[in-house]
Amino acid sequence: PEAAVMSQTNSSLLDEVVQWSPETCRQELKSVLPKLAISFWIMGITGILKVITDMFLPHIGLSELEDECFSKVLPKAATVFDSMLKEILDQVGGLSSQNTELCAFLRRLLESMMQLIDSLSACVRHVGSFDEAPYLDTIRSLPTCVLKILKDTFQHCKFSFVFQRRHHKLLNKSCFRNLQRCADSLGTH
């Protein structure tokens, strides 16, 4: 019951935040960003990282990125991504043409992984938008997270190639291709 109340509270916060103006995001940054980072564990990744990168990240200066955002959000994002990969590997054995629910679940997981990679790309673009080049210690969580997710994605894609040969009709190949394209794009930013 307590987790359900907390989830409803975080869900209503997210619903409220997506309606805010850029000025409100800038003003509420320090109070709301930690709450959204905590929401990762309660609500999952869907939408939260995108809200953070689209609405709050533009208002954070280079000197504040690590402490205000990256150190709070990116390690959790990497952990969530890793758990999604593990879930795919755990569930793939039960995949059959009769198990349409599992196919849909795996597609949603792959789509969430692509969304996470897109949000990481937004972080990389934001860091690249500053006139001065950042020192690594001012953004230390970003390269660590990006490299881990790239490595995990490409290891997963190697597995996926073998998997696709066996189950090509069950999961749309474009899901795997899109995941790899997202990772390729992240690696080139």
UniProtKB/TrEMBL annotation:
<protein>
    <submittedName>
        <fullName>Uncharacterized protein</fullName>
    </submittedName>
</protein>
<dbReference type="InterPro" id="IPR027902">
    <property type="entry name" value="DUF4487"/>
</dbReference>
